[in-house]
Every structure is written in C-alpha cells, then in structure tokens.
Amino acid sequence: MKTKQALFIATSVFILMLYLPGCKTDGFSNEEVELISSGKTNQIMELYTINEKSDSLLLRQKARKIKKKNIGSETLELLKKRMFASMTDTLNPGVGIAAPQVGLSVRMIYVQRFDKPGDPFEIYYNPEITEYSDSINSGSEGCLSVPGYQGKVDRSQNITVNYLDSTGKKRTENINGFTAVIFQHELDHINGVLYFDRIFNGFEALTKTEE
Ligand code: ZN
Question: What is the CATH number of the domain that holds 199?
Fold first, then answer.
C-alpha cells in the first residue's frame, strides 16, 4: 500500500513537472497571456513595426492556428477587444489588423467590411483564401506596421475565403472589391508577408506618406 502510494505521488509529481513548463492558457503561453493582459479591454496594444528588429522577426513568422475550443475564451476575447481598440485608435486608424501586428503570432484578423451596411469591423479566425480571381486591381496600400509609407499593390478583385467566425462556426464567403484587398493584406500578415513584398523592388519602391 505504502509503496503504491509513494509510486502514485512520484508519478503525479513527474507528470506535473512535464506539464507545467508548457502550460498554456486558452492556447497562449504565459508570456503571451502577460502581453494580452497588460491592459484593459479598450486599451490599445503597442504596434509591432518593421522599425524594430525583434518586432520585424515576429512579423515575418507564419502564425499558428487558433483552436476552435479557445474561441470565446477569456484570453482570446480580451485580445480581440484590444486589437479592435488598436485598429480604431483615432490617432492612427486602420481598416484592418492582424494579431502579429500586436505581437501575437496567431491566425486572427480584423477586417472592416466596406461591402456591408455601416462598414462594420469583423473578426476572422484561421482565415484561408481558397480562390483568387484572375482579374486584378492595382491600389495604394499602407500598413500600421510600416509607418509613414505607401505603395501600389496588385490584388485579386474577387476571392473566396474560409474561416471560423466569432462564434467558432465554419463559413465560406465570396468577397469583392476593396474589402477583398483588406482580406488579402491581413491574410498576408498571418503568413509573415508584408505588402511591399508584392511590389517590384519591395520596400525601396514605397513612397512616403504626407504627415
Ligand atoms: Zn498591414
């Protein structure tokens, strides 16, 4: 009996030791939770830009998927609200944002839906573009992570996107026009791609925006 008890305790402690270092909360590491929880729901997060080397490295990573079971969790909801606050910051507003832009390498983007009444901002988890139209539009783009610059990018006019919505439901949509451009720009972010990668001569080809 005693030996069995001791063995049980030893095994439990061993399993706990194995588990703790990799312990994740709602799919995020302790470090990531700390970053997300460092402010309240309406508080903007620091934007990661190409001007900082460590930011730049994170922006270039392929972000990991979000597990369906974590959609709606406390940590993800807080991140969602803080991403929204960061994107709608009146001093530096955007029409979309991707989680890597606030330092979280996960597949989660916001897009302003100019194709819907009232132009609402919507969240998408694990978005994927499954079809690109051959018809291309060339339009000027800027990025919160590339401050002070803009450049012309060729994008497909129509796309088909698969994603999990805010409730975790799987959906497919055909999207056109400027909203499709935002989707393509934000989707690039979660694959570690920045918009100037799609321009001949890249960053060198960008022009400065007027302040
Ligand atoms: Zn961007």
Answer: 3.90.45.10
